[in-house]
Every structure is written in C-alpha cells, then in structure tokens.
Amino acid sequence: MAEPKPRDLAALLLTLTVVTGVVDAVSFLGLGRVFVANMTGNVVFLGFAAAGETTLSVLASLTAVLAFLAGALAGGRLARTDDDYGALRQATAVQAALVAAAVVLSATLGSGSRLGSELLIVVLGVAMGLQNAAVRRIGAPDLTTTVLTMTLTGFAADSKAAGGAGAHPLRKVAAVAAMLMGAFAGGLLQLHVAMWTALTLALVLILGVLVVLQLNRARGRRRPAAAGP
Q1: Positive or negative, the Cα torsion across 43, 64, 201, 216?
Q2: Would you kindly state where each structural domain of the chain is located, as residue ranges?
Q3: Where are the transmembrane segments (predicted)?
Q4: Can you tell me the distance from the alpha carbon of 188 to that of 103, in angstroms, rounded to the nearest whole number?
Q5: How far, in Å, CA of 175 to CA of 201, rounded?
C-alpha cells in the first residue's frame, strides 16, 4: 500500500483525534460517566467507584477497559499481518462498521437501559482499541489520536523556553485543538440533539479517513503497472 505523504498522514490522524473527542463525549455524557477511548480516566474511575463514589459504575468502567483491550488485541493482530498503513486501513474499516452498529443501537435501543448502555460501551470500546493499536504501529510523534498527556508534556518540555528544539509545536497544538473540537461537537449533539447524531458525525469522519487510505492503496497499485515496459 502506498504510504500517505507526511502532511496527509497528519491530517488523517488529526481527524481520528476529532473522532476520539466525539466518541468520548458521547460515552461520558450519555453512557454513565465512562470513557471508551481514554483508558487512564477509566482506571481512575474504577478506583473512585471502588472507594464508594456512587455516581460512577465499576461495571461500566471495567466493561470499557475490557472492550478496549479486545479491540487493541485485534488491532495488534492486524499490525503483525500487514504493513503499517495497510493495518490502519483495515482497522479503520472495522472501526467504521462498529461505529455504524453503534449508530443503529443508539437510534433503536438507546442508552436508557443498562443493556443498551453496556452494548454501546462494548462496541465503541472495541472500535477505539482498534484505532489506538493501528495508530501506535505507525508511531507518529505527538499524534496518538487518543492521549494528550504526552503531547502536552512534549509541547512544554521540548519547547525552546525549556531549552529544547521546539519541534512540531503546531502539530502538538493541532492535536489538542482536534480533541477539543471533537469533544465540543460531540457534547453539543449529545446534549442538545441525540446520541445517534453525534455517533453519525464520528462515522462520517472515520469513513473520510478510510476513503483517503483506500485511494492511497489504489495509487500504490497503479504505480508498479505504470513503471512496466
């Protein structure tokens, strides 16, 4: 598969970062104060819930962690059977199918019942685990798509003010802005419209990434033929 140009790759990963913001807004605001992408938050929530915080659910946080691990396991398998960008393409295709299923679930079962919420947490957790594993294989600095802690640390610690080289400051800022934008858009739709509309936005963004990856793959196939006699 043809590798996307560095600028194209950054745009794809920033788009997936927006997806993370949207999906975590849906899960936190609509599925009982749980994250499906931010596993640090879930581990902390598990501790709070175990300590007796009644507004948090041990079951929801544990379900999200296990679903994310299942998705990351599947993404890790893909990463070992294909090249970096082929793995990302395949993981994104499966992620799109899972988020499409979440759109249908949210529009039918909804999140009003415990069963509906748990099913959505499982589907979305697997989808985000897949994304994280595939992106991790590529190893693009400061564009993990799901975690901003190291991005913000790098922005400060590597800055010229700290005596560093100040490499890629705009990329780091863009990653934070992408997550914020996704959280805002997802929160707006979740709070004022409906859960399925926020998940539909996430699905459209994922499909956009998948289309670009497919086009790169098609271009990569055409080049060897064009180079022939």
Answers
A1: positive
A2: 19-218
A3: 56-79, 91-109, 115-135, 195-213
A4: 17
A5: 18
Amino acid found at 157: A
* pLDDT tens for each residue of 69-94: 999 999 888 877 666 678 889 999 99
The structure tokens 């707006």 sit at 188
With b for 16 or more beta-carbon neighbours within 10 A and e for fewer, the 15-29 pattern comes to bbbbbbbbbbbbbbb
